[in-house]
Write a structure and sequence with these properties.
Mean pLDDT: 92
Helix content: 25-40%
Structural class: alpha/beta
Pfam families: PfkB (PF00294)
Region (Disordered): 305-325
Low-confidence stretches: 309-315, 318-325
Biased composition (Basic and acidic residues): 307-318
Shape: globular
CATH superfamily: Ribokinase
Protein name: Ribokinase
Keywords: Kinase, Transferase
Length: 325
């Protein structure tokens, strides 16, 4: 495989609590388990790395305990960091509460990942064959959005940019969002985020509007719909709903990150987009059967899953078409 995934996003430390249900206001719950794990953009990088892509991190890590924890996690996955630690602050953290229905609720505190400048990003250089990934989280921070948008606009035209607006899309100034969308090669978002950008409607119409009105340089858009799979539309007009796989989910934290990482990894080695989307659906399905945000499967695990003889174990999800908000 040629090239690398150059991840220009954010990584934080996740404090994960498993509870039966969210507590009512003013009440308390006792968690059934707790873990401290690397999170944020780390989950997407792990998914790409475990499926064979060479991954490097071009964001900012802190200089304190959280930053040290994240650097150790990066090293364990063979992911190199390109920028030096922030000399003035630690990395941020996120409290993730996973309820009994496998859904998750987050409270985050930004740190070094929320501050970027072009000088800090000077060591981040791309080469032919590289792919770049950017996240809406970095664009939502006042201290990083302008530098990241400037850096993206200076990318060589032949370097593909994959962009995930993330659930904080409403916190990204529209002018900044439009600048990044204009340079996006592949937009990957969930149904809510797609509607936030292009307005309500059926997924086919929204995907078409995303390409014609918001991502004029894109090769395609992929709209994720959880267990139902995803919808892919290419710039040349072809489109397809790619069904998901029915599995017993225990933790959906990081499923979207896993989907994006596996999709980019497949595209980078020449897999056609619709096939890459099915591959990503399988990776995300496997990830939700495991606890932890960075629960992405390996290439071999995905291929075994896809070739399994008993389709009742992981048959394609058969629910009806999905709509955006």
């Amino acid at each position: 495989m040629s090239g690398r995934l150059v991840h220009i996003g954010s990584a934080v430390v996740d404090y994960v609590y498993h509870i039966d249900a969210l507590p009512e206001p003013g009440t308390e719950k006792t968690a059934s388990s707790h873990a401290q794990v690397a999170g944020g953009g780390f989950n997407m990088m792990v998914a790409a790395s475990r499926t064979g892509m060479n991954v490097v991190f071009g964001g900012q890590l802190g200089s304190g305990r959280n930053g040290d924890f994240l650097r150790a996690a990066f090293a364990a996955e063979g992911i190199a960091t390109l920028t030096p630690p922030s000399p003035v602050m630690d990395s941020g953290n996120c409290v993730a509460m996973i309820s009994g229905d496998a859904e998750r609720t987050f409270v985050s505190w930004p740190g070094a990942e929320s501050v970027l400048s072009l000088d800090m990003m000077a060591p981040v250089r791309v080469a032919p064959g590289d792919w770049v990934f950017a996240s809406g989280y970095t664009l939502s921070y006042v201290g990083s959005r302008d530098a990241l948008a400037d850096w993206i606009e200076a990318l060589p035209a032949e370097i593909p940019l994959v962009f995930d607006p993330t659930p904080v899309i409403s916190e990204i100034p529209r002018a900044i969002l439009d600048r990044v969308l204009a340079h996006t090669s592949w937009l990957s978002c969930n149904t809510t985020e797609a509607g936030e950008i292009a307005g309500p409607g059926d997924v086919e119409a929204i995907a078409a509007r995303l390409l014609s009105n918001h991502c004029p340089s894109a090769e395609g858009v992929i709209i994720r719909a959880g267990a139902k799979g995803c919808f892919v539309r290419l710039a040349e007009g072809t489109a397809q709903a790619v069904p998901g796989f029915k599995v017993a989910a225990v933790d959906t934290n990081g499923a979207g990150d896993t989907h994006i990482g596996a999709f980019v990894s497949a595209l980078s080695r020449g897999v056609p987009p619709f096939e890459a989307a099915s591959y990503a659906n399988a990776a995300a399905a496997l990830s939700v059967t495991r606890h932890g945000g960075s629960s992405a499967p390996t290439e071999q695990e995905i291929q075994t899953f896809l070739s399994h003889d008993d389709r009742s174990v992981h048959r394609p999800e058969a629910e009806g078409p999905f709509m955006t908000a």
